[in-house]
Task: inverse folding
């Protein structure tokens, strides 16, 4: 069992690594207390207590809920993925929960905002999760070799939000950047090896290349988790609907 403990205020939550949600049963059963297990609000409040108040304040909108992260890990694990990239990892909430739930897998987060990566690394050092790592970077420009799984929580949509609805103004956010980033990830996914697994929450901002098959679609949090698996070689220009 991995215990999450906030050094600052002493709040605590526990996650049992083997206790993943059932396929149809949603995202309950996250800790050892059955009555608390279905209380997703409490679970997220406990995890978010690890973060500074400014990060906590935007959690509901921008960071993956604990139960959704566990559910996503289950899909990635079942697809055979072992090394997963979170494209736009923010303060690391998905990566950290995933690393606790699946110690046999490796989770890497890449995030464009340095200050968010620093927060993620600080919490990681508190939680001591050796199978998680974070780096600052442009996710669409880095080599994606070495990953057999990807997680997207609609990372590029923020480019289309109005001022005030964005995380901050520390990076370029624009419609043209949205188009550029989305077309880069569509290309990168197209050329990924056969068997590559992609899990999306609130979509992946673009369209899945048609060489990916939608293998699972399950209700989670405020949307759906979709598992896509690349099952044939890419034919130029063929894309699925947004997913
Ligand atoms: C909706 S948040 C999701 C955060 C995290 N994946 C989670 O689920 O908790 C999307 C994040 O993607 C980051 N992002 C967007 N475009 C990016 C890019 N091109 N390269 C790196 N990070 C990016 C944003 O800065 C933001 O932190």
Result:
């Amino acid at each position: 069992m991995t215990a999450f403990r906030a050094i600052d205020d002493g709040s605590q939550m526990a996650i049992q690594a083997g206790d993943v949600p059932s396929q149809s049963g949603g995202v309950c059963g996250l800790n050892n207390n059955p009555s608390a297990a279905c209380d997703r609000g409490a679970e997220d409040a406990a995890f978010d207590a690890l973060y500074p108040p400014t990060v906590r304040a935007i959690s509901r909108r921008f960071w993956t809920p604990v139960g959704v992260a566990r559910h996503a890990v289950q899909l990635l694990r079942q697809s055979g993925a072992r090394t997963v990239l979170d494209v736009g990892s923010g303060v690391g909430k998905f990566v950290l929960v995933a690393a606790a739930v699946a110690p046999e897998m490796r989770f890497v987060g890449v995030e464009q905002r340095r200050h968010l990566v620093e927060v993620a690394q600080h919490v990681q050092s508190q939680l001591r999760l050796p199978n998680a790592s974070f780096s600052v970077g442009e996710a669409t420009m880095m080599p994606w070799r070495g990953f057999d799984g990807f997680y997207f929580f609609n990372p590029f949509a923020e480019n289309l939000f109005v001022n005030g609805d964005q995380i901050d103004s520390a990076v370029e956010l624009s419609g043209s950047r949205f188009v550029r980033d989305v077309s880069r990830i569509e290309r990168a996914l197209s050329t990924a090896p056969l068997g590559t697994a992609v899990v999306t929450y609130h979509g992946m901002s673009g369209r899945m290349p048609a060489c990916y098959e939608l293998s699972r679609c399950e209700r989670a949090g405020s949307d759906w988790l979709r598992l896509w698996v690349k099952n044939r070689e890419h034919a130029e220009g063929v894309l699925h609907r947004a997913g």
